[in-house]
Amino acid sequence: MPRYEKIPSENWKRAREMRNNLTKAERAFWRALRGKQLGVRFLRQHPVGPYITDFFTFEKKLVIEVDGDSHAEPKQVEHDRVRDAYLKSHGFRVKHYTNNDILKSLEGVLSDIMEVLHASSD
After folding, report:
1. pTM of the full predicted structure?
2. From CA 34, how far away is CA 36, in angstroms rounded?
3. Confidence class of residue 70 from pLDDT cuts 50, 70 and 90?
4. Is residue 51 within 8 Å of 94, Cβ to Cβ?
5. DSSP 3-state assignment of 57?
6. Which of 5, 10, 19, 121 fits 45 for a cystine, CB–CB 3.0-4.6 Å?
7. Does the pLDDT at position 1 exceed 70?
């Protein structure tokens, strides 16, 4: 996997901590993604450049963010906007789902992701 810029060592440590402390929605989502269940390998809580993505597949250049209530706060909205712009500038597509999307409609979220994955094959 190419490195877009040096990943700070504290990001690797923070990502490891985050993998060990997934939210309920992230745990449910990970159970549905792990082991190539959607046909591609996803990583969870993985650094990409200066950011830590919730889930991503390098193969399809797709980042999936699972957003809790804090993502509605103005400071977090701006952080997400800047992070998404960075990821898009490096060729990634970014999809956002709320915790509620995952917990209430996991099948719908997975169906949406499958459409995105298949669209990238065209």
Report:
1. 0.82
2. 6
3. low
4. no
5. strand
6. 19
7. no
